[in-house]
Amino acid sequence: IALPSLRLLYLLDELNNPLITLKSIGHQWYWSYEYSDFNNVEFDSYMMPFNKNNNFRLLDVDNRIVLPMNNQIRILVTATDVIHSWTIPSLGVKIDANPGRLNQTSFFINRPGIFFGQCSEICGANHSFMPIVIESILI
């Protein structure tokens, strides 16, 4: 059992060099982000209150994540209180945010646009009010 497992672990090891590292911290009931590669730029992202001019009801946020397209992106995810899940279905990214643990994944955005997601873990009464919005731009 050990020999095939060690071979698979070696093959699954990621050896990419990401352009940007984004740290995402789940709170009740919002997300905090840090661009740690750029002098620790930090911001909170809350759901936009509902109004008639907002076309993306329950999906839009006040501070979007802005990431460049055609580059490898690494995301580090953690939480401060309960288990959350950072999910962007259209990018194929889903990673759990556990308190006291730092999880890592990477993804590649190959087209410009706005990508929506939200917490997909049942983390409490308002977990459906934790949207995630990524704006992909061409640099």
UniProtKB/TrEMBL annotation:
Residues 17-139 form the Cytochrome oxidase subunit II copper A binding domain. Its EC number is 7.1.1.9. It catalyses: 4 Fe(II)-[cytochrome c] + O2 + 8 H(+)(in) = 4 Fe(III)-[cytochrome c] + 2 H2O + 4 H(+)(out). It is found in: Mitochondrion inner membrane. It holds the Pfam family COX2. CDD domains: CcO_II_C. InterPro entries: CcO_II (IPR045187), CcO_II-like_C (IPR002429), CcO_II_C (IPR034210), Copper_CuA (IPR001505), Cupredoxin (IPR008972), Cyt_c_oxidase_su2_TM_dom (IPR011759), Cyt_c_oxidase_su2_TM_sf (IPR036257). Belongs to the cytochrome c oxidase subunit 2 family. This is Cytochrome c oxidase subunit 2.
